[in-house]
Amino acid sequence: MAKGGTQTARAERDWTLVVVWIGIAAVVLLVVGVVLGRLSGAVPHLQAWWQAGPSLTGLVEHLLVNWVGAWNWPASLAWLRPHAGWVAPVTAVLAWVVLIFLFMLPMVTYQIYALRKVVGFMQARVGPTQVGPWGLLQTPADVLKLLTKEDVIPRHADRIVFTIAPFLVLVPASMAYLVIPFGNQQVVDGKVVYSLIGGDLNVGLLYLSAISSVAVIGIIAAGWASNNKYSLLGGMRSAAQLITYEIPLTLAVVPSILWVGSLNLNTIAQYQDHLGNWLVWPCFPGLILFAISALSELGHVPFDLPEAESELVSGYNVEYSGMKFAMFFLAEFSNAFILSALGVTLFLGGWQSPFPESVPLLGWDHGIFAVGWFFLKTLSCVFFLFWLRATLPRLRIDQLMSLGWKILIPVGLLNVLLVAVLRVVLG
Amino acid sequence: MSMTEQAVATPLDELLARCRAACGELLGEPVQRAAISECSVAASDLRRVAQWLRDEAGYNYLALIGGIDRLAQLEVVYLLDRLPAPTPTGRLALRVAVPREAAVVPTVSDLWPAADWHERECWDLLGVRFEGHPDLRRILLPEYWQGFPLRKDYVYDSNTMVDEILERELTPEEDHSAGAGDLPAIFTEGHRRDHDGLVTEDIAINMGPQHPSTHGVLRLRLSLDGEYVRNVDPDLGFLHRSFEKLAELKTYVNGIPLTDRWDYLDAMGNNLIHCLVTEQLMGLELPERAHWIRMLVLELNRLASHLVFVGTYGLDVGAATPFLHCFRDREMILDMFELLCGARLTYNYIRIGGVSADLPRNFLADRVESFLDYFPARLTEVDNLLTGNEVFRQRTIGVGVWSAADCIGYGLTGPLLRASGVRRDVRKAYPYARYDQLTFEVPVGERGDCMDRYLVRVAEMHQSISLLRQICAWFREHDAATRGDFQGRLPKSIKPPASETYTAIETPRGELGIWMVSDGSEQPYRCKIRRPSFCNLSLFPKVGSDQKVADLIAILGTTDIVMGEVDG
Predict the structure, then answer these.
(1) Which one of B549, B551, B558 would you mutate to disrupt binding with A, by most A Cβ within 10 Å of its Cβ?
(2) What was the pLDDT predicted at A398?
(3) What is the pLDDT of residue B39?
């Protein structure tokens, strides 16, 4: 009578194996880096890039233009020369990936730590205390645990789609960092001294809204491929929710674009050079709209229907475990940071200090101070998210839909009209 | 009890006279026991009499259907009552005797929908077939179980029995592992829908027994049309521990620890009902102090239980914070119980004739009164966090509206019934302990929706606080004089005289009662438990269908079931 449970592929791993793999990978990377650097003569170009002002786009530019073009190809690598067109971009992309993950992983890890501490405080608990001082190493330990966990794929799942789905969610989340202005761009005599924005795209906002739409495909794919009814329901809810709230989210940022007249996030941040110029004043309804839609886009309380624990157990990611689960998690928290950063840039002055430049220390917003202001504001928004998480219950799917379509979209349209008129009237 | 035999004799005679006038000589000779009038009726006349009693005599509430194996024949007892206030005759028990070999009784599930599950349980455990019942499946035991455990000739040999069951090939209807095969007919009818040319099929989905919101091991088989639940079929019995059978195998005293496991959030109440019914059979008088200690722990336990409800209901609608705040405060009550009896969940504190230990010195001043000073503000804080929240209001107001008629018909009791506006509390209707000396309100709701069911419980907590204050006041006056006098004198062995009775108390979940049959020995002959969670859940298939999934969870949350009690 008793039927066997679902059999799963067993991956046998242990700690030694992981350490050995990480060691081998590190050595290989080091050797490849040194050899490539020496052989290619990229070092002078890196120095040149540093002297020109260490911007990430600058690095890509340098690698593309100088390295490929002016590379003194050694004889042993001469066969690669015809393919130089892709060697450089690939190297640049790899550099990007490493950089983003060096930023994103610790960022998210400690975001989760902060969440657990903050929510713990609000819930009359203490949060993590055991691993490391004040529990500081708890979340890194969790990440390591997830990395080393058995990777389970349910027997009846669509293996390929099931594996691709987490990447479809994580990649757009990491791509978003490119256009976020973490700080100012120092330009002296038309020459960039340093730049604290990854890619100074003049269509930055468009780029952001475009790539963030890709993630929904990953979520539907995950829900579908798991071959689990709960994940399917979660995936369906997510799709409906994300598509619905894309529209008010976009409508919410249009006023800021209208006011400044640019899609470039750096330009928008630069425009808000003192408190009176912050876009929150002319575009205040936009900020509210943005906050609500962003919460929904994030699947955050009170809009956490896709993963409503009390209804769908965990939603679209219910069958995921180990690293694949961690990727969804990573994307979710990374998105929380990105959308907070976007909100800060669009409405709250970005990296600019609210104090006049004349105030010492507090009024400074260049270089490290700009980064400081940016993180202070962004992390305050992230804290706000945590606060909501500890406070609010969850809306129902029809309430969510009618809020999106019947209230937020008309209000968003009205707001665009209002700001446009205001802009024309005020010149 | 306030009703003496003298006082009810006349209304009962009058009732029987009216019944005879209407239905003919159908009822047998009436028997008047302590609090219950009893009549026997032939199986063939049951429906006529039952219908008359419901429509003309006002017995709108079926408290329980209990089967008793009398060896010569099987007996089915229908316990009737009127809501919100009892009739002059009080509770009325109808007895139907049927032969063991052909135990067939007509169903009354169309008269009182509550009978649906009671009859299924009676069929499951005693093998009484209810003719005309729409869905007479086993309810607590698995479909493939053999025999009827509560019959006196049932032999349970775990070795042969389990082997036999495990080795048998299951029919598709019995095979629960086969997915859709085990779905009752309601799931396969009309499950294809045409949405303007787009034909869709409902999906059958299992919610539970491992699910965060089914409050234990409840399994709900749902058929979903998108976000809408079209059909609900609860599958019970995952936590069935056969308390009624075990009670027959243990002495009255040994039965008390078992009661802790029924409704483990209100174990004090379970202790009490077992002791109360035994004391009533024996005609025991308790020392005054024992009554007051009992009320003290009962009201504290009610607070603790409602705190779990408020917290978990927050979780059900997605708010995690109230849960932890409620558990923090509940911890203080559990600490008090630990001081009293050494246990935090299964107390075994209330004993036949009194309680197991006196209150520790300064218990009231140090623990209870300081808690009463601290707690109301905390309760208000948590309450504001939920009821002051627009999202919570949207999720609960107007959701899951239950009519008073439905609640009464399905035998709902406790806060669920009161939320639909029926002002009925066993503490008022049939006072036990010393509740008749305390003053308290019975809060009722207006709309009968999820919000009302939540609010009624919060209001009850405020009433409990007031009751506790009154109890503390009594102790301030009498503590010194009565100290040490917490246990009545008992005979060496507890052997109630051959008799039977029914008594009920008001637990946080509703009317918890026991129909206890004694044959004069040390063990109960039959112990039929009226489990309020079981009855409260019986309305769920009706109110759960055609709801959204999220509302289903919100509604299930308000029933505040404890699976240990539902599954018996």
Answers:
(1) B549
(2) 86
(3) 86
Provide the percentage of residues in chain B whose pLDDT is more than 70.
Answer: 92
Angle at B482 between CA B480 and CA B487, to 5 degrees: 145
B522 and B495 Cβ atoms separated by less than 8 Å: yes
Is the CB of residue A301 less than 8 Å away from at least one CB of chain B? Answer: yes
CB atoms near residue A212 (< 10 Å): 21
Q: What is the pLDDT of residues B485-499, one digit of tens each?
A: 999 888 888 999 998
**Closest partner residue to B318 among A119, A233, A301, by Cβ?**
A301
Rounded mean pLDDT of A14-22?
A: 60
H/E element holding B370?
helix B370-387
A81 contacts chain B (CB < 8 A): no
pTM for this prediction: 0.84
For the ranges A15-19, A189-193, A247-251, B211-215, which has the lowest average pLDDT? A15-19
Q: Does A305 touch chain B (CB under 8 A)?
A: yes
For residue B395, list chain A residues with Cβ-Cβ distance below 8 A.
Answer: 393-396
DSSP symbol at B424 = -
Shortest Cα–Cα distance, B539 to chain A (Å): 20
DSSP result, B176-227? GGGGGGG--HHHHTT-EEEETTEEEE-EEEEE-SS-TTSTTT-EEEEEEETT
Interchain CB distance below 8 Å, B177 and A301: no
Residues in A 360-389 with any Cβ partner in B closer than 8 A: 389
**ipTM metric:** 0.78
Domain assignment of residue A147, yes or no: no
Enter the CATH code of domain B243-567: 1.10.645.10
Rg, chain B, Cα only: 24
Q: How many other CB atoms are there within 10 angstroms of residue A147's CB atom?
A: 13
No. of H helices and E strands in chain B?
20, 18
CA distance B134 to chain A (A): 28
Does A104 contact chain B (CB < 8 Å)?
Answer: no
The per-residue pLDDT for B355 is 93
Chain B residues closer than 8 Å to A303 by CB = none
A402 touching chain B per CB within 8 A: no
Domain count of chain A?
A: 1
Q: What residue numbers bound the domain in which A180 lies? A: 153-426
Please tell me which residue of chain A has the smallest CA distance to B215.
A310
| Residue A281 in domain | yes
Q: Which residues of B touch A126 (CB under 8 A)?
A: none
Cβ proximity of A387 and A118 under 8 Å: yes
- Rg (alpha carbons) of chain A, rounded to whole number: 24
The C-alpha atoms of residue B508 and residue B496 are separated, in whole angstroms, by 29
Question: What's the CA gap between B417 and A291, in Å, rounded?
Answer: 41
pLDDT in tens, B20-66: 777 776 667 777 776 788 888 888 888 988 988 898 888 999 999 99
CA distance B327 to B329: 5
Contact B328 A122 (CB under 8 A): no
Residue of A nearest to B549 (CA): A311
Sequence ranges of the domains in chain B: 11-131, 243-567
CB-based contact, A310 to chain B, within 8 Å: yes
Q: What is the pLDDT of residue A326?
A: 87
Would the pLDDT of B3 be above 50? no
Residue A276 lies in a domain: yes
Q: pLDDT at residue B182 above 60?
A: no
CA angle B102, B106, B111 (to 5 degrees): 160
Q: CB distance A125–B324 less than 8 Å?
A: yes
- Cβ-Cβ contacts under 8 Å, A395 against chain B: 391, 394-395
- Spatial distance between the Cα atoms of B320 and B307, rounded to a whole number of angstroms: 14
A322-336, B284-298, B408-422, B525-539: range with lowest mean pLDDT: A322-336
CATH number for the domain running over B11-131: 3.30.460.80
